[in-house]
Amino acid sequence: MLTLTDLRLARAGRTVLDGITLSVGPGECVGLIGPNGAGKTTLLRAALGLIPAQGHSSLAALPPAERARAAAYLPQGREIAWDMPVEAVVALGRAAWPGAARSEDRAAVARALARLGLDALRHRPVTALSGGEQARVLLARALAQEAPLMLADEPTAGLDPAAQIDAMALFAALAAEGRSVLASVHDLGLAARHCTRLVVLKAGRVVADGAPRAVLTEKLLAEVFGIRAWIGDTAEGLVFQPLSRL
Ligand SMILES: Nc1ncnc2c1ncn2[C@@H]1O[C@H](COP(=O)(O)OP(=O)(O)OP(=O)(O)O)[C@@H](O)[C@H]1O
Fold this sequence. Notes:
By secondary structure, the chain is α/β, with parallel strands linked by helices. The protein has helices spanning 40-48, 64-70, 86-91, 102-115, 131-144, 161-176, 188-194, 212-215, 218-225, and strands at 2-11, 14-24, 29-33, 54-57, 71-74, 149-153, 180-184, 197-202, 205-210, 227-234, 237-245. It has a 6-stranded mixed sheet with strand order 5-6-7-3-8-9, sandwiched between helices. The protein has a 3-stranded antiparallel sheet with strand order 2-1-4. A two-stranded antiparallel sheet has the order 10-11.
C-alpha cells in the first residue's frame, strides 16, 4: 500500500510535482502515464524518499531498512557496472532481508529467476548479456526482494514485444496475488491491457485517474499527449495506435 498526499517538488526553480495525491492499494497494478517530462520518474523517486519533497509519502516516511522491505524499485537506468553472475545480481535484491535464512534467500532468487525465464542464464556474467536480458535480470533482482509494493520506471524499455508482454503480465500477476504495483509506462496499449488503473500526469499534476477504458479517451490523448490516436476495444482488451500529432 502506498499513499501520497499533496507531494510537491521544484527543481531548478521549476515546479515538477504540483500537489500529487494518490494511493495504490493491495491488488492494484497502476500504470503511471504521461508525456516526457511530466514528472513520472520524479514522482516515483519522491515516493521512495530518494529525493526530498513537500507533502507526505507513506513509504518515504518509513526508516530506510523498513522501506527496503516495503518496496522494490526498478529504476529507469539499466546500466550494470558489476561483472557478476546473473544469480548473484538477482541475489542483491535479498539485501533488504539481512536476517533471512540462506535457504529462504536461495528460494526467493530461484523463484525470481524462473519467473523471468532466466534459469538458463543464471551462471552467465551479467555484463555478457544483451541489454534486454540485463533488463530482465534487474527486474528479477527487484522481484527477489519479495516486497508488497513494486515501483518500476519504464519496465518495458528495451524489451522485445514478447518480453514486454511478459513484464506487464508479471506486474498484473503480482497485483492479482495481492501486492501493489506502480509502474511508469509509455506504451499506452500495454498499460491499458495489463493495468487495473491508469494515472495520467501532465506537468506534475494528476489530470486523470481511473479504469483504463475511462481514462484513455480521444479527448485526453489530444489534451495530454497532443496526438490523434485510434483506440480499439477488442477481445484482447484495449488496443491503441497513435496516428498523428495534433
Ligand atoms: N536534476 C534535475 N534538475 C532540474 N530539472 C530536472 C531534474 N530532473 C528532472 N528535471 C525536470 O523535471 C521534469 C520531470 O522529469 P521526469 O524525469 O520526472 O519526467 P518523466 O515524466 O519521467 O519523463 P520521461 O517520460 O521523459 O522519462 C522535467 O521537466 C525535467 O526536465
